[in-house]
Specification:
The chain is mainly α and about 650 residues long. The protein is about 75% helix and about 0% strand. Mean pLDDT is about 80; it is low at about 500-505 and about 640-650.
Length: about 650
């Protein structure tokens, strides 16, 4: 076996391909493009020495007496806040009570809830009573009876249980010392538990007990996010694909994104978190400003309903890039994104199967519109899958033993539902992303990819004229450059900016409109002047670049280009000079992710869905945060082997 392998490695064909591979990679590394895309530190150094960089540093350090006084007063006010002390003390006291006390509460609440169900259904014969009320009452009784046999405190039971050790601590980063100080034997508080159980049980006559449980869970999650903004980032990545299933899902998404930002701002004023600005962040900051200016739009006041949420969601980037400051938090965010992608993929598969069962037709193109999970449509869902795909790739490539099973399942689910969406640009993106990942992960995959690409090109070239035209026509129809059969995107841009004739455009567009665009909502407002296609279809048929050009002008196109370039530069620089393998793989995922996004941007625009806009900037920020930690460690020479020690120091 070894002799055959050695003979294969010494063959002329293998040696030739190895020589070609080394030659190509060396030429790229030492060439102009290689030096350009691996010089991020030079770009950042130029930014720091510039006027804008020095001003940003002065604001961050805040050496002025006025700034220090304001910050100290705000910190003291927040620390002395009665609301903060009330909720902190309330939760701590609850954790000190025994399980027996909570058992008495549950038994009392369950009994009173069952009595209210009997009164409503039998005595008063109300039609509004629900079976869920009886089920909730029975559940409370069973849980309460089980808890009556323990004098252990709630905090001690939680801190030594699977829920805390397997979920709260690993996923949300709750520090271990939070509940470790609570004594094992809990206090008895029947005088509070029993009357409170009576009230809660009686209230179930007005609302379902599950709503009360949901309210309690929501309160605890809000308290967790306000205490640990990093947990809010993980939570947003987990629930992001599913907010579309909720009523007013967009508002819930904005609330979920705003809550950790409020927490971060408060901790920033108290000096418990930091804010750093690098050259890569400048285009995002300018995009925020540009989005605000786009509210001054030809669409009028309705533009602000789109602009303000977009500003909040893009601003989430600065939260993530500044608070995800340790390797453990970076790992949690990556895992949360992969888990949410896997679960949403399973939801998409179920949606497809339900559509097939309803129609009895097993056709991808017919049921693709049904596969969207909680996103606006299948295009934005496919956009999310393209972003999550490289994270699933590196998770699968670096996992071992049992972890490889679930990571492989997640990867297979993402690919399968990507096909079910029938978004051609997403499928092309995933193929290119896989090939690029192989090229970056293992350089000796280059010969195989080269041969495979040559064979594919040869097959396409040898197709018959009708089949070749059908293949190219499918690409053209999904390329985002045709609004309708009679109007191309280029013609639409020319008419909007340069045609004279009617209404707003009677005297032409002018340089200002070409540079700044029509503003938010401009496409929907004025496309009716040039085509009979409904405004929503026009917006969906344009690709990313044409959409930005029409609404935001040339400046709106240049800012994302600058961010994409600096993001590539940061990733390639970390891949070349970084020493931590995990961070280098994160940078590799960043290169693969942005390449897939750029390929899809040629065909479609997806940022009209707030969830798609948020997931792109959140994923980019997770990768950038890991790279910044690596650069800081490389410069200072500091590295903490123990992840828990780094976590505790970060919280201190």
């Amino acid at each position: 076996m070894k002799r055959g392998r050695q003979r294969w490695q010494d063959s002329y064909i293998v040696r030739f391909f190895v020589y070609i591979t080394n030659l190509v990679y060396s030429a790229i590394e030492v060439g102009l493009l290689g030096r350009l895309f691996t010089s991020y530190q030079t770009s950042d150094r130029l930014f720091r020495t510039s006027l804008f960089g020095r001003a940003a540093k002065a604001i961050r350090i805040g050496n002025s007496r006025v700034y220090r006084t304001v910050r100290r007063n705000v910190a003291l006010a927040m620390n002395r806040s009665w609301l903060n002390r009330f909720f902190s003390g309330l939760i701590y006291r609850f954790c000190c009570y025994s399980m027996r006390t909570f058992g008495a509460f549950c038994v009392t609440a369950g009994a009173y809830s069952a009595i209210m169900y009997w009164l409503l259904s039998v005595v008063w014969q109300s039609n509004s009573v629900e079976t869920s009320q009886l089920f909730g009452a029975a559940s409370l009784l069973v849980i309460g009876i089980l808890m009556l046999f323990s004098d252990t405190s709630l905090g001690y039971a939680i801190s030594h249980g699977l829920f805390y050790n397997k979920l709260l601590a690993p996923l949300f980063g709750v520090p271990e010392e939070t509940l470790r100080t609570i004594e094992k034997e809990g206090k008895q508080g029947y005088a509070i538990a029993i009357p409170l159980g009576m009230v809660i049980g009686a209230v179930t006559a007005l609302t379902s007990p599950f709503y009360l449980l949901a309210g309690l869970i929501a309160f605890l999650l809000i308290y967790l996010v306000l205490s640990v903004p990093e947990a809010g980032v993980v939570l947003v990545l987990l629930v992001l694909p599913f907010v579309g299933f909720w009523q007013n899902g967009e508002r819930w998404l904005l609330f979920a994104a705003a809550l950790p930002m409020i927490s971060y701002l408060g901790k920033l004023l108290r000096g418990k978190r930091a804010f750093h600005l690098e050259v890569q962040d400048v285009p995002v900051l300018l995009m925020l400003l540009f989005f605000l200016l786009s509210g001054i739009s030809v669409a009028g006041r309705s533009a602000w309903s789109v602009v303000l949420p977009a500003v909040l969601l893009v601003g989430f980037y600065f939260l993530v890039v500044n608070v995800i400051a340790t390797p453990s938090w970076s790992r949690r965010c990556r895992q949360a994104l992969v888990v949410s992608a896997m679960l949403s993929s399973l939801v998409g598969i179920v949606q497809y199967l339900l559509a097939v069962l309803q129609t009895g037709v097993l056709t991808l193109s017919v049921h693709s519109a049904s596969v969207h999970a909680g996103f606006a449509d299948q295009t934005t869902f496919a956009y999310f899958l393209v972003i999550a795909f490289p994270f699933a790739l590196i998770t699968f490539a670096t996992s071992t033993h049992t972890d490889r099973i679930w990571s492989g399942f997640a990867l297979a689910a993402i690919v399968a539902v990507g096909v079910l969406t029938w978004v051609h640009s997403a499928m092309i993106s995933m193929i290119v992303m896989l090939l690029l990942f192989l090229l970056l992960f293992e350089r000796f995959s280059f010969p195989f990819i080269l041969v495979g690409t040559s064979l594919f090109t040869t097959v396409i070239a040898t197709l018959s004229a009708p089949n070749k035209e059908r293949f190219l026509g499918a690409l053209r129809s999904n390329s985002g450059v045709a609004v309708s059969r009679t109007l191309s995107a280029g013609d639409l841009v020319g008419r909007i900016f340069f045609e004279k004739g009617s209404g707003l455009f009677a005297r032409g567009a002018g340089i200002s409109r070409l540079f700044f665009g029509l503003g938010s909502g401009g496409i929907e407002r004025f496309c009716a002047l040039y085509t009979s296609v409904p405004p929503q279809e026009v917006a969906a048929s344009l690709n990313f670049w044409f959409y930005l050009l029409i609404e935001n002008g040339v400046a709106g196109v240049l800012l994302p280009i600058a961010f994409f370039f600096l993001f590539y530069q940061s990733c390639f620089s970390t891949m070349r000079y970084g020493t931590d393998r995990t961070v280098r793989l994160c940078s590799m995922a960043g290169v693969v992710m942005l390449t897939g996004v750029l390929i899809m941007s040629i065909f479609r625009y997806a940022w009209y869905d707030p969830a798609a806009l948020l997931v792109f900037f959140a994923a980019a920020a997770v990768i950038s945060a890991a790279e910044r930690h690596e650069r800081f460690r490389r410069v200072t020479g500091e590295f903490m082997e123990d992840g828990n020690r780094a976590e505790l120091e970060y919280y201190g």
